[in-house]
Write a structure and sequence with these properties.
The chain is globular and about 45 Å long. The protein has a single domain, classed as Hotdog Thioesterase (Thiol Ester Dehydrase, Chain A, Roll), CATH 3.10.129. The chain has a 5-stranded antiparallel β-sheet with strand order 1-3-4-5-2. The protein has 154 residues and is α+β, with helices and mostly antiparallel strands. It contains 3 helices and 5 strands.
Length: 154
């Protein structure tokens, strides 16, 4: 299979936080943000594999900043490493100031997706060829994370 770059899977979703999506403190529910990240990551994994993809795991989530009611939220996702049938997807969440347009990174996450065929059987995905320094850093980090999760990273 021909390798693909992270930019070929890059997915950007922008939306506004509405009152029905907030908790008693008027901040976006964590579960709502997880769902938004899952959708963006699913699209990124599908763009990379050109297959049906399913969420295999949520490996890391950091809720660093609250996302207030009315905020403009951008979720950016891209495949950071591809294995035989699975893909790690790195997700960045940004909040945009409505008045000056300044973007602040609020949260990040790492999800793993598996590509499947029409019967639900895992199927091969193309390898990933990182290009930028950040893509190379995330690519190397993905292997370290996988080794640690399998107990082979000593």
């Amino acid at each position: 299979m021909t390798p693909k770059t992270p930019s070929e899977s890059r997915t950007t979703m922008t939306d506004m936080v509405l009152p029905s999506e907030t908790n008693a403190l008027q901040n976006l529910f964590g579960g709502e943000l997880l769902a938004r990240m899952d959708r963006a990551a699913s699209i990124a994994a599908g763009r990379h594999s050109r297959r049906i993809t399913v969420t295999a795991s949520v490996n890391h989530v950091a809720f660093n900043l609250a996302v207030p009611l009315g905020s403009v939220v951008t979720v950016e996702a891209a495949v950071s490493r591809a294995y035989t049938t699975s893909m790690e997807v790195y997700i960045d969440v940004w909040i945009e100031d409505r008045y000056n347009g300044k973007r602040t990174k609020a949260n990040e996450a790492i999800y793993t997706f598996v590509a499947v065929d029409e019967t639900g059987k895992p199927t091969e995905v193309p390898p990933l060829k990182p290009e930028s320094d950040l893509e190379k850093e995330r690519y190397a980090g993905a292997l370290r994370r996988k080794q640690l999760s399998l107990g082979t990273g000593r």
